[in-house]
From TrEMBL:
It comes from the Bacteria. Keywords: DNA damage, DNA repair, DNA-binding, Glycosidase, Hydrolase, Lyase, Metal-binding, Multifunctional enzyme, Zinc, Zinc-finger. Pfam families: Fapy_DNA_glyco, H2TH, zf-FPG_IleRS. Belongs to the FPG family. GO terms for biological process: base-excision repair. It catalyses: Hydrolysis of DNA containing ring-opened 7-methylguanine residues, releasing 2,6-diamino-4-hydroxy-5-(N-methyl)formamidopyrimidine. Its cofactor is Zn(2+). InterPro entries: FPG_cat, FPG_N, H2TH_FPG, Ribosomal_uS13-like_H2TH, Znf_DNA_glyclase/AP_lyase, Znf_FPG/IleRS. The lineage of its organism: Bacteria, Bacillati, Actinomycetota, Actinomycetes, Propionibacteriales. Residues 236-270 form the FPG-type domain. This is Fpg/Nei family DNA glycosylase. Residues 2-109 form the Formamidopyrimidine-DNA glycosylase catalytic domain. One of its GO terms (molecular function) is DNA-(apurinic or apyrimidinic site) endonuclease activity.
Length: 285
């Protein structure tokens, strides 16, 4: 799933190419992706794009008072074309969920792989009309260490992994970067959020900012098609189960859940003690 660094890079990429262009096409080809009906998607046609912004993991095309907002979810992606195809895409056929074209001939397709269709498209007059945006927490880079401390204290006994990836608590961090932040901080993903010493708080706050800034810097200026591979190549533990930890050489381990998993290094993060896999222990709280 694209997270803050990738979506920020997408926003910059699209801002450079789409602002000042007018929509000439906006065709929904996967009805399940469209989450709103007023204004209709057709209302975008003829409107000039004023800006492209990011809200957490949402992309926002602002066009003369109308907003096209996109959430790529787990398997969605945006494919930019300097010369957009003029072919009409048949609804329900293939991976394309939305095809747009601009007045200079460029445009993009939204695609979604797999069978779990979670990609979301909204056409609204105010971004706050999108429920996921309305409930977003603050952006990581906007938080002072005092703000961060207050968030963790309020979370109480909730595990750190869950706090970091909860969009209503902190916007933009997902499954991958929460793993990466906790590895850099040398902290267990199951550590209670309110149970941090002052030193641990300082370390975690620094790890969050450092990890995200490094990913933003690495993504800057990349073409859209290169963002996924750049993200994957920069990850230390996430998605690397069974490989060696780049810090200590121990094996990266995994804990699986119903629809996701986390990766961590026991030597770096849990004092050498492997965490119980929830597939195997129904008693782990």
């Amino acid at each position: 799933m694209p997270e803050l660094p990738e979506v920020e890079s997408l926003a910059v990429f699209l801002r450079e190419r789409a602002v000042g262009r007018a929509f000439v096409r906006a065709d929904i080809t996967a009805i399940s992706a469209l989450k709103t009906y007023d204004p209709p998607v057709s209302a975008l046609v003829g409107l000039l794009i004023d800006d492209v912004q990011r809200h957490g993991k949402f992309l926002d095309f602002s066009a003369q008072g109308v907003h096209l907002i996109i959430h790529l979810a787990r398997a969605g992606w945006l494919r930019w074309r300097d010369e957009q195809s003029t072919t009409l895409v048949r609804p329900g056929k293939g991976p394309i969920a939305l095809r747009t074209a601009f007045d200079d001939g460029s445009g993009f397709d939204l695609t979604e792989a797999g069978t779990q269709k979670k990609l979301a498209v909204y056409v609204v007059r105010d971004p706050a009309e999108v429920p996921g945006i309305a409930r977003l927490g603050p952006e990581p880079f906007s938080l002072s260490i005092e703000d961060f401390s207050a968030i963790l204290k309020k979370a109480g006994r909730v595990q750190m992994k869950g706090v970091l990836r909860n969009q209503s608590v902190i916007a933009g961090i997902g499954n991958a970067y929460s793993d990466e932040i906790l590895h850099v901080a040398k902290m267990s993903p199951f550590k209670p959020a309110s149970n941090l010493t002052d030193d641990e708080l300082t370390t975690l706050y620094g790890a969050m900012r450092e990890t995200l800034q490094d990913a933003v810097d690495r993504s800057a200026g990349l073409a859209v098609q290169d963002l996924k591979s750049e993200k994957k190549s920069g990850l230390r533990v996430h998605g690397r189960t069974g490989q060696k930890c780049p810090v200590c050489g121990d094996i990266v381990r995994e804990v699986s859940f119903a629809d996701s998993s986390l990766q961590y290094c026991a030597t770096c993060q849990t004092g050498g003690k492997p965490l119980a896999d929830r597939r195997l222990s129904k008693f782990l709280k």
